[in-house]
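Help: read this over?
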Amino acid sequence: MGALDRIRRRLSGARQPAPPAAEAPAVRATPEEEARLWAVLREDPNDVQSFHALARIVRQRAAEGHREGDPHKAADDAVWALAEELAHSGRAWYPLVELGRLSVHDDRDQALKRFATASDRDASGIALATSLRVLREEGLPQEAIGLGVGHWRPREHVVEVGRQLVLAAVEARRPADARRSLDALSGNPDAAAVAAVRAELEPLVDEAERQRAAGPGSGSIPVIDVREKKIFRRP
């Protein structure tokens, strides 16, 4: 196993896959539970857990109602409608991230606008970090870099934004950008989080720089993919 493989396994946790479990039967939510979730999300449209709980309900209902057509598309359309309704709130950023995720391969420009708007609505940087991670998960690290460079405020945003930018730059084979993003984290006041991220990513950036310096004829791995398991999974 090469050095890069060892780094990638360490970043991913190198967990052995769990044995497949029997699929649990769908549990139909009561009208009271659905009403409760709507109330929670109208109060806080960025409650991720409640969003996905309600999304599961609307997906299930839509799929069951379109057995003659494409149940998966009907389910996605139902989640789209849910996210679109919640996104009308000026405080809502997570519904915009979900809209971006659903549209990123069909209408990339509009998806990027949604990610940008979500990032503008959240001063902490969590929305930006989430948007960057979605773009990486969808195989679009270059787009993640563009979004991050235009919106990242290293001194004000959570450290996870910088972490996602470094990973995107490594995946895009842009080690110089990865190094600049890693160095920019030093301005963040959360010294403990910065130290943890540097300890995690410094070996990866070093390896990316080594591969770039070695050149295409060195037998190095041409693409570095360090995409992680999703934090927020679509139902």
